[in-house]
Design brief:
Length: 242
C-alpha cells in the first residue's frame, strides 16, 4: 500500500493534526452508531491520532486502533485513556494475521479516500470483511464527488498558535483535479523550517462504493448524510455476509 502522507507520518506534522482539526463533532455520529448497533469489539482503521479510539475505549468498548503512521500513533498513545486501546501500526491487511472477529470496523476522517488504487481499496475491503464476525458492521464516510468540496480547500498562509506557544503558518493549495483524483499540497512553516505534505485523495460516488461493498461480501444496510457536513459526505453502514 501507499505510504501515508507526511501530514500523518512526520512527527512534527502529526503533532499538529489535532490542533488544526480541533472540532471533532463529526465523531459524535459514530459514537451514536456504535450504540445503535450494540457494538463492543471495535477496530478503528486509519485511527490516526486516536480521537475516536480513546472516546470509544472510555465507554468500555474493546478497541484496536490501526494506522500505518507511527508518528500519529505516538500522538494517540499520549492521550487520556490511550492505555485502554490496543494500538497497531499498519494498514487493514495487518489484521489478517490476528484473526479477529470484531463487531464493528470504522474509518472516520475520510480514510476511505486515501485508497487511490483499486487494488489498495479492494485489499482493504477484503481485510475488513475477514476481521468482522458474521453480520458485523463496517461504518465509514467518504466525500461526495458531486459536492466538489476541493473547490474550497485552498488556504492562504494563516498563522496558528500551537499549544507550546510557537506559531505555525499553514497554507494549502489544490494542485491537480483529475476526478476521481484530487491532489493538494500543504505547507507548514514553523520558525525557519518549512514542512511540505502532498496528498492525493480518490472520490468514489455512492453507486461505486455500494458496488464495491457488495463485491466484497457486504450488504449495504444504510447510507446516511454526515450530520455535521450535510450534502458533502455519505456515511455507509454495511454488514458482513458469510
Ligand atoms: C485524515 S486522517 C484520519 C484519522 C482519523 N481516522 C480521524 O478521524 O482523525 C487519515 C488517516 O489515514 C491513515 N492512512 C493512510 N494510509 C492508510 C492505509 N493504507 N490504511 C489505513 N490508514 C491509512 C493516515 O495515516 C491517517 O492517520
Amino acid at each position: 500500500m501507499r505510504e501515508p502522507d507526511a501530514a500523518f507520518a512526520d512527527p512534527r506534522l502529526a503533532a499538529l493534526y489535532d490542533v488544526l482539526d480541533n472540532d471533532r463533532s463529526d465523531l459524535d455520529a459514530y459514537l451514536a452508531i456504535v450504540d445503535e448497533v450494540g457494538a463492543r469489539r471495535i477496530v478503528d482503521i486509519g485511527c490516526g491520532t486516536g480521537s475516536l479510539a480513546v472516546r470509544l475505549a472510555a465507554t468500555g468498548c474493546s478497541v484496536l486502533g490501526v494506522d500505518p503512521a507511527e508518528a500519529s500513533l505516538d500522538v494517540a498513545r499520549a492521550k487520556p485513556n490511550a492505555e485502554l486501546v490496543t494500538w497497531l501500526r499498519g494498514d487493514a491487511t495487518r489484521l489478517l494475521d490476528l484473526h479477529i472477529s470484531a463487531d464493528l470496523a470504522v474509518m472516520t476522517g475520510n480514510v476511505a479516500q486515501v485508497f487511490v488504487s483499486d487494488n489498495d481499496w479492494s485489499d482493504t475491503l477484503a481485510a475488513v470483511h475477514a476481521s468482522l464476525r458474521p453480520d458485523g458492521w463496517f461504518v465509514f464516510e467518504t466525500r461526495r464527488p458531486e459536492a466538489r468540496d476541493w473547490e474550497h480547500w485552498d488556504i492562504a498562509p494563516t498563522a496558528v498558535t500551537l499549544p507550546n506557544g510557537d506559531v505555525a503558518t499553514v497554507a494549502r493549495c489544490v494542485t491537480e483535479v483529475a476526478v476521481p483524483l484530487v491532489r493538494f499540497e500543504t505547507s507548514t512553516t514553523i520558525g525557519e523550517e518549512v514542512l511540505d505534505s502532498t496528498s492525493t485523495l480518490r472520490f468514489r460516488g455512492r453507486e461505486e462504493v455500494e458496488r464495491d461493498l457488495r463485491d466484497h461480501g457486504f450488504r449495504v444496510v444504510d447510507v446516511r448524510d454526515a450530520p455535521d457536513r450535510p450534502g458533502k459526505e455519505l456515511v455507509f453502514l454495511a454488514s458482513a455476509q458469510q
